Amino acid sequence: MSDDIYREIILDHYRNPRNKGKLAIADVSVHDSNPLCGDEIDMHLKIDSNTIQDVKFEGRGCAISQASASMLTEMVMGKDLEFIKELKKEDILENIGLTNLGPARIKCALLSLKVLKVGMIKYYTDKDPVSAEKIKGESQIY
Amino acid sequence: MQKGILDSHTIRDDFPILKRKIGGKNNFVYLDNAATTQKPLAVINSITNYYTNMNSNIHRAVYEVAEESTRAYERTREMVARFINAKHVEEIIFTRNTTESINLLSYSWGRKNIKAGDKILITELEHHSNIVPWQVLAKETNSKLCYLNINDEGYLNLDNFFHELEGGGIRLISISHMSNVLGTIVPIKTIIRAAHEKGIPVIVDGAQSVPHMPVDVQDLDCDFLAFSAHKMLGPTGVGVLYGKRELIERMDPFMGGGDMIKEVFKNYTHYNDIPYKFEAGTPNIADVVGFGVAIEYLENIGMEAVRQHEIDLTEYALELLTSIPQLKIYGPLVAIDRGGVISFNIGDIHPHDLATIMNDHGIAIRSGHHCAQVLMERLSVSATSRASFYIYNTKDDIDQLINVLDEARRIFRL
Known about the structure:
The structure holds two protein chains of two kinds.
Chain A: H1 2-5, H2 8-15, E1 28-34, E2 39-48, E3 51-60, H3 63-76, H4 81-86, H5 89-96, H6 103-127, H7 129-138
Antiparallel strand pairs in A: 1-2, 2-3
Helix pairs in contact in A: 2-3, 3-6, 6-7
Chain B: H1 8-12, E1 21-22, E2 26-27, E3 29-30, H2 41-54, H3 64-83, E4 92-95, H4 98-113, E5 119-123, H5 132-141, E6 144-148, H6 158-167, E7 170-176, H7 188-197, E8 202-205, H8 217-220, E9 224-228, E10 239-243, H9 245-249, E11 261-264, E12 269-271, H10 285-301, H11 303-321, E13 327-330, E14 341-346, H12 351-360, E15 363-364, E16 366-368, H13 373-379, E17 384-388, H14 395-411
Parallel strand pairs in B: 3-15, 5-6, 5-7, 7-8, 8-9
Antiparallel strand pairs in B: 1-2, 4-10, 9-10, 11-12, 13-14, 14-17, 16-17
């Protein structure tokens, strides 16, 4: 079973994370951690014309959390915000190919999505409170 | 059983959970004993027996069943007193766990005795339960929380201790007897003797030591000792606070309510005698009774034998672990200086990933910060893997751990 989790692509993203680092100017930066295991993710977003112009992440933790974050940045780069609003847990798990995780490890896989959603809420809170509330309600992150 | 030698293969038969399978096929290899230990059938049965035959509230009613339950509850208190060699049985207070015992002290002793500017001395080895209550108290009283440091091998820096002691201003020392991460056994007797020369009381966090080695409070001369039943074969929800009689007599209650009173009037209350003054409300009677059976079980084996068994296992494990490439062990490398708790990291495999791989083979190890983030910072790691042993663990368990470490190296292409 571990062989199914720790496939080449997960190890590759873990050891060679894409879009890792900071942004010189970010419109939104969000940090969160998983108290259970201490995984940490910071996500920085540059947003223009309702589109993710650039995204970078920093973090430390297990292979699942860090590979998932790396793959998420690739997934959302250049996408419009509607796409991010619609992103569901299942999309992430499918994207990283881990649909069989137990309740403890699933939190590792979804930490970066949580950070991204909180980033969206933060971004919309001033500009469009209705959208912010809507994302909050639908994001299944609390 | 021959005194001094422990047969873990026979002991295993007393623990039903060790017969279960993991993932439907693998034997259960339980190596998370620093978190909690498994329970022998005798303990499990004693709880069923209590509810089947004896259930009633204690200390008040005069009917036969209530007298039996009161006797059973108080019998455990006597056994605990004997187990740690307390001078008086009323020095044993039942709490929920070690954490509550330390919080009780921080509340009842701390608020009365710690003044602005005083120093509370702890160490970098502490569990969060021996850090956070003192942070809260220090903030409230404007006192200062100070840390003794450890060296790179995980030993407490005694020079640093004597230096702090000479510096003055220390009002209280609260210190773990055995680290739950590094296994380091702290020279507690030396510390207590030196502290007492300066009139400083010492709290010993015995959560990891009392279950695994002989601990004699009169020999140590500690002022307080806190530990938990569930880490020594007993049920969860029962903790112990030992305190020297003259100290706990002078402490105010922690919680108010039933059982901790003698007489209650509209505007004031005469509190009960110790230890009842600190046991407000209906306690966890059934589990205290079960704890008595756990102590009996350990006494039959003998704590010297428990300690020797864990030294043997630790020596064996350290030897095998040090031969694995890219594996780093944290803490002392000499088995007699430490308990059967081994923290390590291997290559760039995160402890949570390793624990997942271990679980696939039925092995339960712990991964994370082990409620000791101050220590993690000192070690410059965010997490470690931890294997910890008890009386039912065998060298076979360690062989399996080592095999799966090889498997993890293969999966991660180390």
